[in-house]
Amino acid sequence: MSVFRDSSGQEWRVLLDAFALADVQKETGVDLADIAAGGWAKIEADSGAVGRVLAVLCRDEIHARNLDPRSFARLIRGAAIDQARAALVAEGADFFPPSEWSALRSNWTKRRTAKTQAETIQTALAALDGMTPEFREGAMRALTEALATAARDGINSSSSPAAASVAGPEPTPLSVVTSGPVKSESPPAD
Prior knowledge:
- The protein has helices spanning about 20-30, 40-45, 45-55, 60-65, 70-75, 80-95, 100-130, 135-155, 165, and strands spanning about 1-5, 10-15.
- By secondary structure, it is mainly α.
- Helix 1 crosses helix 3 (about 45-55) and helix 3 (about 45-55) crosses helix 6.
- The longest helix is centred in the middle third of the chain and has 31 residues, at about 100-130.
- A hairpin with a 5-residue loop joins strand 1 and strand 2.
- The chain has 2 domains: about 1-95, no CATH class; about 110-155.
- It is about 65% helix and about 5% strand.
- The chain has a two-stranded antiparallel sheet with strand order 1-2.
């Protein structure tokens, strides 16, 4: 069982079991039993979902304190959201078998990494809009190569024997040209 404090300092207990997971999914649509990490990604990204999920998991305590779920959710704000999220994650680690939790955390990390990469790419593409066509072309080439390298590295880290063949050849590194062409003398004629 994990514990967190709400924004008023009250302590709440969080306990996951098979019935609690089913109740959370039924009442909030957040599937914490999903090994693909969909529900846990929602907990990480959506502060409102944290309050709704906890309102289900803490239902008995909520009623014992003469609160309703909405009043309880209003107490889950600011730093309490981080504490509540940490309690949920700790409870997930306690509930799931280590192999499942490890796979779930791995999928969670991959989703977070992919989201960060997508945001970085969107920022880079937006910055290219105001640049000259020549610069934009070079930047796009560099971005394409960087993405290919990242994809290859991700594929090569796979345990699949086919992964190496999917990666393709090593990309040619970019070279920066700082001056014009160098003149050379012609070789002597025979």
